Amino acid sequence: VSTQSTGGNDTQDAESDVGEEQDVSYEEEMTKRREESPAEKNRRKRFKIAEELYTTEEVYYSKLALINEVFRNRLKNDGGEYMFPEKVIREIFINTHELQNLHVVLRDNLKDRIQNWQLRPRIGDIMKSIAPYFQLYTDYMAKFENAIKTLNELAAKDDKFAKIVKDLEADETHCQKLKISQHMLGPVQRIPRYRMLLEQYIERLEETSPDYPDVKDSLEKVALAANKANDNIAKLENFQLVTQLLSNVSGLGMVMERQENAAPMVYIKHGKIMKMSRRTVQNRFIFLFSDVILICKIEGHGKYKCTKRIAVSDLRSLADSSDPNMAHPFELITKKCSFTLGGKDEDEKKSWMVALNRVMAGGQAAATSSPQRLGLVAPVWIPDNGVSMCMNCERNFTTILRRHHCRACGKVFCSMCSSNKQWLAFDNKTGRVCDSCNSILSARDGFDEKARKTRGLTNSNFFSGTIEEPTDHEVSSTATKGTIQSGLISGFVLVKLGPEKDYQKYWCVVRGVLLHLYAGTYDKKAKKEMPLVGWNIAEPDETDKVQDTTVTLKVGHQGLDPMFLKFTSEPEKEKWYEVLEKATFVD
User: Fold this and answer.
1) CA neighbor of 334 nearest in space, from 383, 392, 302, 380
2) Mean pLDDT for each consecutive 10-residue tract of the chain (587 residues)?
3) Nearest to residue 501, comparing CAs of 522, 528, 537, 534?
4) What is the spatial distance between Cα 39 and Cα 54, in angstroms, rounded to a whole number?
5) What angle is formed at CA 382 by the lines to CA 380 and CA 387, rounded to 5 degrees?
6) How far is the C-alpha of 556 from the C-alpha of 563, rounded, in Å?
7) How far, in Å, CA of 404 to CA of 196, rounded?
8) DSSP state of 380
9) Residue 515: which H helix or E strand, with range?
């Protein structure tokens, strides 16, 4: 035990001595640097920059070799023939063969220079000789986006190709846990790195140095290529982001198919949002791009299914909404479909409206002072639960008397009040319309659908001025969206119309001294109207046998059964109490 203890102390002492020697060496180095002259300091830093140029060139060359040799060879059979069409091979690899030949020369020259730096401490001559060939990068960057697209499409269609890519990307020796597409981005990122290192190098180089003219000339040539590269890097990063996002969305169809000279799709914003459907509020996920909006169903695990695709060119306007079925709502008006969306709070709502206005301005979406011009722009549909009766004849809807939406104004009617058909330019076909819209469209257009088609009035020339569009006054008189019933106070309340009754949900409105109970927020006629003068507003007592008394009010009158109003919170209850209490007195 004693021997082991002594040996341990000897080892500790030996390590301590080494540490002291290292500390002394470090201190000597730092002292030496502090005593350096400015010229000596610049010479030391120039070498460090040259050394970094060489070491990063080694890494970059290995990426070129991975793409041009390893990946290319895996696409060949045992006989050395490509297993895939030559056209596809050319599109994927572009000119990586020429780039590899260029950079093997640059790498070897830099290696030799670093090893013999004391004899020839300069890099300008090497970079000047290679700089004219950087025009190869112009071709690479121009074709890079198409190369990635070809690679992804072939991987999606060909299982053999997909397996080769997957196996290579799983090979940590070669790919180092990066995708092939990320390695292919290397040439685009390399040129800006040359520029940065040369700028650092020339800052520490005297103008009288024989290396200065060559470095300056190289930097000018590299800067031109780097400017193009920076523009392309931003475009390519956007392209990769768009591709990555859309890879998680099904049901897209041909959304990625673009015309040859079309501007690229630019990512703007994405996130969760609420959408009012015909029957209920739905959780949805929106992807907003420069030329298209994708409204998707959330499937879980980062996957989505596209349920609606809207071209930015079809956007018409945005408007605040007072829809009580949704928190923080706003209306998105488009040429072919319009609906109500909502954010989780007011800031999120404003953020979406700002982003949508931005793409509308960038896409030069058609603006309109009257977003619900009949037949020209799709209306926002009133949800089914917003009405309990026909918005014309006021008959109550039942399982037999069903709801029908007017395709022109978005209101809800019975079948008898919406039995007409009119041509709708936004949909490029005929659709069911209410009696009121039918009168306006017939008077405005002067002929029916058959006559319209005979005269060749299609969707394209409908917007070109063939007929006169309605004025704001003509539309707003009857064809605007239905009005939500409102007054001194309004909102959804659970109402119990007697001790033995069950609670029912009503849209309650106080106007003057009357309490109106509507079955739907857009109903023209209330289910029940109650004069409040002389009634007593109080909290329930034990004899009422009412639960949740902290959020419930009792509205009673001598000789009549009391009514109970149940709210969602105590603050809401207090707000209603103040209004109801005032309504029970006449000034």
Assistant:
1) 380
2) 40 42 62 78 92 94 92 90 92 93 94 94 92 86 86 90 91 84 85 90 92 93 77 68 80 59 75 83 88 89 88 78 78 78 85 82 45 68 83 86 88 89 83 85 60 40 35 35 66 85 88 85 83 86 82 85 88 89 76
3) 528
4) 23
5) 170
6) 6
7) 66
8) B
9) strand 514-518
Q: How many CB atoms lie within 10 A of CB 303?
A: 13
Q: Can you read off the two tokens belonging to residue 59?
A: 């890494």
Count other Cβ atoms within 10 Å, centred on residue 177: 9
Q: What order do you get walking across the sheet with 489-496 strand by strand?
A: 528-531, 514-518, 504-511, 489-496, 560-566, 552-557, 536-538
Beta-carbon count within 10 A of 150 CB: 17
**What sign for the dihedral angle of Cα 242, 247, 250, 251?**
positive
Positive or negative torsion for Cα 291, 292, 293, 297 = negative
DSSP H or E run through 563: strand 560-566
**Integer Cα distance of 366 and 435 in angstroms:** 29
Q: What is the pLDDT of residue 76?
A: 92
d(CA 301, CA 287): 16
* Other Cβ atoms within 10 Å of 89 Cβ, number: 15
* Residue 47: other Cβ atoms inside 10 A: 15
Q: What's the CA gap between 297 and 295, in Å, rounded?
A: 7
What are the DSSP calls for 289-350, one per residue?
Answer: ESSEEEEEEEEETTEEEEEEEEEGGGEEEEEE---TTSSSEEEEEESS-BEEEE-SSHHHHH
Q: Are 551 and 573 in contact (CB under 8 A)?
A: yes
CA distance linking residue 523 with residue 531, whole number of Å: 19
Q: Which residue has the tokens 């917007």?
A: 463
Question: Which of 355, 347, 188, 338 is closest to 267 using CA atoms?
Answer: 355
Instruction: Provide the token pair at 321.
Output: 């909404």
Angle value at C-alpha 144, between 140 and 146, nearest 5 degrees: 130
Which residue from 88, 82, 230 is spatially nearest to 147, judged by alpha carbons? 88
Q: What is the pLDDT of residue 585?
A: 76
- pTM of model > 0.85: no
